[in-house]
TrEMBL record:
It holds the Pfam family Haspin_kinase. This is Protein kinase domain-containing protein. Signal peptide: none annotated. SUPFAM superfamilies: Protein kinase-like (PK-like). Keywords: ATP-binding, Membrane, Nucleotide-binding, Transmembrane, Transmembrane helix. InterPro entries: Kinase-like_dom_sf, Protein_kinase_ATP_BS. GO terms for molecular function: ATP binding; histone H3T3 kinase activity. ATP binds at residue 72. PANTHER family: INTERLEUKIN-1 RECEPTOR-ASSOCIATED KINASE (PTHR24419), SERINE_THREONINE-PROTEIN KINASE HASPIN (PTHR24419:SF18). GO terms for biological process: intracellular signal transduction; mitotic cell cycle. The chain crosses the membrane at residues 227-247.
Amino acid sequence: MTRRSIQFAWSKAYSSKRDFYRELLFLCRQKEFYKWNLGKKVLDLKGAIKLGEGCFGEVFLVHVNGKEAALKIIPIAGEQVVNGEKQKSFRDILPEVVLSQELSDLHIIEDGNSTVFYWTIIVFFMVLKRRYPRELLNAWKKYRAEFGSENDCPDIFGSEQYFLLIAYENGGVDLEKFQVYSQAYSIVYQTIVSLIVAENRLCFEHRDLHCGNLLVRSVSQKAIRMYHILWILITLLPGSTTIYLNLKNDLELFEGQGDLQFDIYRLMRRANKKFFLSIL
């Protein structure tokens, strides 16, 4: 049974007074929030390594269900300003969960449709509440000492802080750091195939495809596999539903300088005449 085959108990009365926390728990298959002490068989933080960071979260290499996984941790629904930004509400974070799961599920064959493994597979979504664990704080500080950081140290969070955890299969290193140029054809080919399948099955539009959003992993001496990550600026039309992220008020996204990527964001906004839709 896939996640999308389970239906939320929707009604006309509920639609007028939605509980977004309840909806998020439903998508994560939880009845209530969890704490960090899930047990090492589920989430082992020993030896955690910070892989990277973004404005809204941190990414660590940990062990999930006994295997290496990339764990994205996003603080949500709190009053604490993080990295100069307000935290996303339960409502605001719902599209990321839906988008991530839809793309991850492209590896599942449905109704004879083509399948593809080039979208990072989600291991789990999880809503937790409590302070940042010591193991992750140590990994965060080690990363800052070695590479520097533009983010606030996660020790700012208190015991009432909620987090959304997204665990991905380990997809390797981002394309910006990948130096094996002999695999360029394979990378381009896999990227094109993955986009074709996503467009065919989900009417997918990427809008943010660059080297930092592609991971590459060696699977043998002569072969690599490419994975997409960070699909925030995208559009999906699964079935009769159109899924967007509302970018209208995200002004900082369009104020970046020094890279063609930022110019593209502004051109995209101009082409859309500042019209951005939202899933919710």
